[in-house]
Design a protein that fits this description.
Layout (H helix, E strand, L loop, with lengths): L1 E6 L8 H15 L3 E5 L10 H5 L4 E4 L11 H14 L4 E5 L1 H7 L8 E5 L6 H6 L3 H11 E6 L2 H10 L7 E3 L22 E6 L8 H4 L2 H7 L4 E6 L12 H11 L3 E5 L3 H9 L3 E4 L13 H8 L4 E3 L3 H7 L10 H11 L2 H15 L4 H15 L10 E7 L6 H9 L3 E7 L8 H10 L2 E5 L3 H13 L5 E5 L2 H4 L3 H4 L7 E4 L2 H11 L6 E3 L6 H4 L10 E5 L8 H12 L6 E5 L7 H4 L2 H16 L7 E4 L5 H4 L5 E4 L8 H8 L3 E4 L18 H13 L3 H16 L1 H13 L21
Parallel strand pairs: 1-2, 1-4, 2-3, 4-5, 5-6, 6-7, 8-9, 8-11, 9-10, 11-12, 13-14, 13-15, 15-16, 16-17, 17-18, 19-20, 19-22, 20-21, 22-23
Length: about 725
């Protein structure tokens, strides 16, 4: 693998963005990737660049020595494109929104791994930033991955930018200790108590206020010394006098040692000789979706850190961490308490433990996983294959489409039908002539058209694969298909495969099972507090989804424990005319909503959330995913819940026990409620959800299902060739 890396950052200045660039190159190198790293600015100090130039398989492209300034966005885009044209790269890692937007219109689109930080970080900012949502949508479309520093940023982007869902992956800050530098075992606070800050000096980073800490601590009887490392003093337009005040304080404050700028390794050595790190910031930054690299560096060195209490920091260090502080007085108070060895050791151990997830080795492992997703190997014996995927709605096929496109030797084109029965026959004909394999998503008019065309005009080696869902089985289209022109009909569950054979009379070996896929890596996110009392339903319409039975479950639970809530992520029935125009459906839903509104138990216990692709982030709050339908062909929601670490709870619709373990299936809503309540009360929820995640990984993980599709699509032989149905095993029933 070859990667081209460019960050819209100046490596002459040691700050979080520069450290990111260095760490990204190091992590890619550790993951086995050959890297070309393009610098934005001429090198004035090689403190960050020199270590990279020593790495084998890493090329650092410096600007000419006579260059007078940094690369503009336009110049950077032009240079990256020229380098790729000369010798194409497999992936292009970029940081900086303006640059990423510029690259969406270049041949690099599709290979971008875009690191997003300089984006609006709440819905109000997004709404106020004209054009930014459209720019980010274009970036998401052009990117293979959007690299997000934190789970909070990932969930925010997926919520406000639906094109980002499924592409957002985590790449947290990376902490790599210099050789020979390790946290001191059993370290306790010294006298004087040495405080340390490293980074830029700016108003919202409270660096001027920090300079008064030695004086204020002395008034509390604590002898303290403040060490500050860095040479970038911010010029603030809203506070023109800040730069001068800050410099005077650095140069003349008693008890303050200003070390100036240092190479990163030396800065960390100075830090390691201190007792407590400072990352206390202005409240304006509490809503930030970014995590300070300095906090993690200090933690890895064994220094407890004073920082603001925010949900992100509580998630990192625990709500009971003793050194949270939001005001200057609170900072003084917790520092005075930290002089106590017991409090100090507690905070130190918590920071050390948190930092272990942010090592260079962890980052390299994370990148290896993303590389496997982006560049899967071709199945054994696979032949070069031209594939057409045809259909009006590809939402259930998107990730499979990405997988097929990424396979070596496989070329994919899409015949996008604007509606179920509408298409451009000329475009379809050209694609049919070109293809080795046609995959029809939905067994509808698209499958009828392609089967008729291939029967009349197809080559002997051409193959047609049709994926059939519940919807089509009860329509007229299967009866219009010439099954002799079809290589394989794919169903998503054993029950519906049997039903398809029975209702159509098609030969048994023409109908096979490849289950629905679940992107378990995307769904595997930390649960939010209280999730064990939260039920989830994904999709409430049509009526046969039986939301009323899920409400029955909630009602049973809330009679004994009002902490239980039901979250429903769905379009509302009146948003779907084909449902709302049916009198029986409309009256049923109206009666259910009246019941919820008028019930003291239910009125405050049901939350309706809008439909959208941000299911993975929504599921963080859900501990149980319910399936109360009258019937389903597969029902993906419980599997998605399992991948998220939620426990599935199903009613026994026909075929459910051939997809999900019988242990998750309950006789009726009362039994379901009883099982959920007992699991929570007895403390078994953590164990059960771990079992559920392991089960879905064994059976329905995206990579496993994608491999089955790859084997089906890339094998040789036409419709007349002998068939070998895909082997599929449902989860084994529990004892």
């Amino acid at each position: 693998m070859r990667a081209l890396v460019y960050g819209d950052v100046d490596l002459n200045i040691i700050d979080g963005s520069a450290i990111w660039a260095q760490a990204m190159v190091q992590a890619l190198h550790e993951a086995g990737v050959e890297v070309t790293f393009v610098l934005k600015a001429p090198v004035r100090t090689d403190r960050l660049v020199a270590p990279l130039e020593k790495l084998p398989e890493v090329t650092v492209r410096r600007l000419p020595e006579d260059a007078t300034g940094s690369l503009t966005v336009e110049a950077a885009a032009r240079l990256l494109t020229e380098l790729d044209t000369a010798e194409p790269y497999d992936l292009v890692v970029v940081r900086g929104r303006r640059l990423a937007v510029r690259l969406t219109g270049t041949p690099l689109a599709g290979r971008l791994w875009t690191y997003l930080t300089d984006v609006p970080q709440n819905t109000a900012e997004m709404a106020a930033s004209k054009g930014v949502r459209g720019e980010l949508a274009a970036v998401a479309k052009a990117s293979r991955f959007l690299l997000c520093q934190t789970e909070e940023l990932r969930c925010f982007l997926e919520g406000v930018l639906h094109k980002a869902a499924g592409k957002c992956v985590l790449f947290p800050p990376v902490v790599a200790l210099p050789p020979g530098l390790e946290p001191k075992a059993g370290h306790t606070p010294g006298r004087p108590l040495k405080l340390v800050y490293t980074g830029k000096f700016a108003p919202r980073w409270n660096t001027y206020e920090m300079t008064g800490l030695p004086r204020r601590l002395a008034a509390r009887g604590v002898d303290a010394e403040l060490h500050m490392i860095g040479d970038k003093i911010h010029n603030d337009r809203t506070d023109p006098g800040f730069s001068r005040r800050m410099r005077v304080a650095l140069e003349s404050t008693p008890g303050l040692v200003w070390h100036g700028g240092h190479p990163r390794a030396e800065a960390m050595r100075v830090t390691s000789g201190c007792d407590i790190g400072l990352s206390w910031r202005h409240p304006d930054l509490d809503a930030s979706l970014e995590l300070s690299t300095k906090v993690l560096e200090m933690g890895s060195l064994g220094l407890p850190v004073v920082l603001n209490r925010t949900p992100m920091h509580e998630n990192l260090l625990g709500a009971d961490y003793p050194l949270f502080a939001n005001t200057e007085q609170e900072v003084v108070d917790v520092l005075a308490e930290a002089a106590d060895p017991a409090t100090y050791t507690w905070a130190r151990n918590r920071c050390l433990e948190a930092a272990r997830d942010f090592t260079l080795a962890a980052a390299a492992d994370r990148l290896r996983g993303y590389l496997r997703l982006a560049f899967p190997p071709a199945p054994a014996g696979a032949a070069p294959t031209k594939v057409v995927v045809a259909g009006h709605d590809l939402k259930f096929f998107t990730r499979l489409l990405d997988y097929l496109r990424s396979l070596p030797g496989v070329e994919v084109r899409v015949d996008q039908w604007p509606a179920l029965g509408k298409h451009d026959p000329e475009v379809s004909r050209e694609l049919a002539e070109w293809a080795d394999v046609v995959v029809c998503e939905w067994c509808g008019p698209n499958a009828v058209w392609y089967s008729e065309w291939l029967k009349k005009h197809g080559r002997p080696d051409q193959r047609l694969v049709v994926r059939l869902h519940r919807f089509e089985l009860y329509g007229a289209w299967p009866g219009r298909l010439d099954i002799n022109a079809i290589d394989q009909v794919v169903c998503v569950s054993p029950h519906y495969a049997d039903l398809t054979r029975k209702m159509t009379g098609w030969p048994a070996d023409k109908v096979t099972v490849i289950p629905n896929w679940v992107d378990d890596a995307q769904f595997g996110r930390a649960k939010l507090p209280g999730a064990e009392h939260h039920l989830g339903v994904i999709g409430m319409a049509p009526w046969r989804k039986r939301l009323d039975l899920a409400v029955d479950v909630l009602e049973h639970l809330r009679r004994k424990d009002p902490r239980f809530m039901l979250f429903v992520k769905s379009k509302l029935p009146w948003d779907l005319p084909w449902i709302w125009n049916r009198t029986e459906e409309r009256e049923s839903f109206e009666a259910l909503f009246r019941r919820i509104r008028r019930s003291p138990l239910l009125a405050s216990g049901v939350v309706f959330d809008p439909a959208g692709p941000d299911v993975a982030s929504w599921l963080r709050r859900v501990g149980f995913v319910l399936s109360t339908s009258d019937d389903e062909s597969f029902h993906l929601a419980p599997a998605e819940g399992m991948a998220s670490g939620a426990v599935p709870a199903l009613l026994p619709w026909e075929g459910s026990d051939r997809i999900y373990d019988r242990g998750w299936i309950h006789e009726d809503p009362a039994a379901m409620a009883e099982g959920i309540a007992a699991m929570v009360a007895e403390g078994r929820w953590e164990e059960e959800r771990a079992q559920a995640r392991a089960e879905v990984r064994r059976s329905y993980a995206l990579d496993l299902v994608s491999e089955q599709w790859a084997e089906l699509v890339t094998r040789s032989g036409g419709a007349a060739a002998a068939r070998t149905p895909t082997t599929y095993q449902a989860p084994a029933p529990s004892a």
